[in-house]
C-alpha cells in the first residue's frame, strides 16, 4: 500500500510516516498543501493522510482537488478540532474518514488499512492463495500452516501480489506500491526482494516470473 502523509507539524508527520513504514507501507511525506498537490499529480496513492489546516494550500482544497480528479485515492483527514460540525464539513467536501488529534496510532493504522481496502475491489481482510495466508492487520504470513517471518518490503511485495488475485504485476507496479519516491527506479531492488521472498516462502515456488511482464502468484 502506498500512502502520502500531509502534515505541517514535521515531527508528527515524520513519526506517522515511520510508524506506517514499520507496517510495510510505502510512505511519502510533505509538509504543505502545495507540495501535496504536486505529489498527487505524479504518483498513485492508495490513501492520503491529510491534515486540514495546512499552509500554502488548505487541506480542504487538497481534498476537493482529489475528488475533482476522480482518482480512487482515499482521504483520511486529520484536525485538531473535534467538533462534530467540523467532522461533518470534512466529510461533505470529499474526505472518506476523519480522525481528530490527538489520536491513538493503532487507530490511525486501522483506519488507513480499512481505506486502502476500498481503493480496489473488496477483498477479505485475510488473503489466501496457493497455500499462503496473509493477514495485513497482524502482519502475519503462513504457508501451509507454518509462519513465515518477512521483512517489511518482502511483506509489502507479497501483499501486492496476493491482492492481484493471479494477475501479473509488473516490476514498475511493485516499485510504485511497495517503495516510496526516494527509491531509484533503475535499481534491481524489486528483483532482489522477489528472490529473497521466494526463498523464504520455500518450495514449490509460488511466485511465477512472467518474462517481459512481471510476477504473479
UniProtKB/TrEMBL annotation:
SUPFAM superfamilies: CheY-like. Pfam families: Response_reg (PF00072), Trans_reg_C (PF00486). Residues 124-217 form the OmpR/PhoB-type domain. Residues 2-116 form the Response regulatory domain. GO terms for molecular function: phosphorelay response regulator activity; transcription cis-regulatory region binding. The keyword Phosphoprotein applies. One of its GO terms (biological process) is regulation of DNA-templated transcription. Keywords: DNA-binding, Phosphoprotein, Transcription, Transcription regulation, Two-component regulatory system. GO terms for cellular component: cytosol; protein-DNA complex. Residues 124-217 bind DNA. The keyword DNA-binding applies. The modification 4-aspartylphosphate is found at residue 51. Member of the two-component regulatory system CutS/CutR, involved in the regulation of copper metabolism. CutR suppresses a defective melC1 gene, encoding a putative copper-transfer gene, probably by altering copper metabolism. This is Transcriptional regulatory protein CutR. It comes from Streptomyces violaceusniger.
